Each structure stands twice: as structure tokens, then as C-alpha cells.
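so my prof wants the structure for this chain in the C-alpha cells format not the other one, which i didnt know existed until like an hour ago. anyway here's the sequence
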Amino acid sequence: MHVYLALVCAFVPALASNGQEAETPDPALASLRAQALALEPLLATKAARDLLALVPLLPAVETRTVWRARTGGYLAEAWTASEHAALSADQRAACDPLQVDTRRWYETFYGTPLAALHAWDIAASAADFASFRGKRVLDFGFGSIGQLELLARAGADVVGVEVMPALRAIYADVAAPTRLEGSEGRAGSRHLLFGRWPAEADLRTAVGDGFDLILAKNTIKRGFLAPPLEIDARFQVDLGVPHDVFLERLHDALAPGGFVLFYNLGGAPAPTGEPYRPSTDIASPWDRGTYAGHGFDVLALDANDDEAARELGFALGWEASMELETGLYASYTLLQRPKAPR
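here's what i got, hopefully its the right format
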């Protein structure tokens, strides 16, 4: 890991540029800046490194309270403070408060948003993006706002879609299309939408099409969508439509020549004799023939990314909570809509 240190030191001036102060009083933002320094040597493309250089532009937020129902798991109902105030007394009594400070704003329930930049790096490399400027991108199951903010400030028009009610409540005030300024004349837009895409017609209309890149991280995996064994319903991802319809609409949402990246991380599979762990089954839910049958060129299917994921984990300090060499695995599937109809 000591090889990172020399590279990190060389990167410090880039993060302190853009006319921003190099220090911040908010510990959450300071942590993100430190993570950016550690991650920069691991990114292969200028497009992804440009995103890291914009981390100092991420703003602190005013702490607010949202409310979640005590039952329902990750799909538990959630309300903003004003929505909660309008509930009946019985409904309010069945809720718990969630304080959303700057750290929660960027990490939500999934940790640092900067971990996602490795997947965006893979996509930028495959698509040969010199930058994200002018690109139209969709983050399916975005999980947190940080990477969307960076993409928009890099000049992309980015749409994030989520089904989790708590995230709708957290980001309700900033969900509308918003223009964000970056540096060197770059500016893009960020739009957050909530519901089951592409199952819901109104949501499909709001999301639109013509995407240069659609990325889904830790969502489209066999363990959640096509497990070989029956699993608890809590671990199933409901796309809202049959799988063939999902793939058809995914294809149609791309611009000709556009790309789809499914990137998945998982822990160690269960030892023989122990219950199946859906979250660790990170393979593609569909085979090469299924993708080809829906009009995709398959550029990579279940490409092994273990080594890069573990480097990412070391850079972010994940070794403090897991054994990375034996407990972290990664793979990705990369698809392209042909530039011309077949």
C-alpha cells in the first residue's frame, strides 16, 4: 500500500484547485477528500479522475429529520418532516426518526459514494469517454447522491432512479432537475426519480431515453433476481416486469452505441452445508444468449474484478471490518446497443 502514498501526494494540488479552500470544518467532507486522495491512483481514466478532482465542490448540508416506518425493511415507508406532521397520530407513533447530517446525506445506508467511481471508471474506459461532459447517463438504484453530484459537475446530464422510500424522503428537496456548476466551464444536470423503472409508465416517461451509459451497482445480480434456490422474499429484487421486458426496455433506453454496466460486489459464498447467501451470488442473472436475443452486444460477461475491488477496499479502509483477500469478490457485465440496427 505504500506505493499509494507518493501518488496521493502528487494528487493533493488537484483536489485543492478549482478555487476551493483545501480544508473544511465538516468531518464528513474531510473524509471524502481523504478518500479521493487514496482512490485517485486506482482509477485508469481521466474521465473518472476528473470526478475525484471535483470532490472539494461537494457541499455540506443542513441536518434534517426524516421518518421511517418500523416495518417493511429497505422498502419501509418514509416521510419528510412536513409529510410526517400530516400523518395521523397512530401513523406517527409507528415511525422512527432518522437524522440526516452531511455524512448520512452522502453515505446513506451504503457507505462512501466514492466507491462507485471504480465502476464509472470501468464504464468510461470501455466507452472510450475522454470525459463525462455532454454524456447522458442513468444510475439505476443510485443509493446515494454523491456520485451523481460529481457526474453533473463534470458536465454530464445524469438521472438517478431509486425505489427505496427512505432515499426519496432524504432527497425530496433536491430531486427536481438541477443544473450544477463544476470547473473549467463544465456544468451538467442532476435529476432524481423514485419508483420502479422501467415498470412504471410515468417513470419511464420522466427518465426518458437516449442514454450514453446506464450503470447499476449491486442490484442486477443472480442472487437477487435468479437464485438457484428459493430465498427469503426480503432479498429478492422485484423489477416490476418480467425479465425479458426489463431487458427490452433497458435496450430501448440507450442511444445507439450506448453502454450498460452491471457491477457487483459480494462477500464470500456460504461454506458447503450452510444456507445460500443471495448477496454473495454476484453473477449475471442472464446468459450471453439472452442478452444477444434482446439486441445487445456482450462485451464482457461476469468479468472477474476481485483484485481491483480489493485494492479499492484497502484504499477505503475496508480491511478494518472484513478480510478482503478471502471475503470480497467482484464481477461485471458490460453490454452495448449496436450503433446500427441488425
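also thought this was worth mentioning. Residues 9 and 22 are 14 Å apart (CA to CA).
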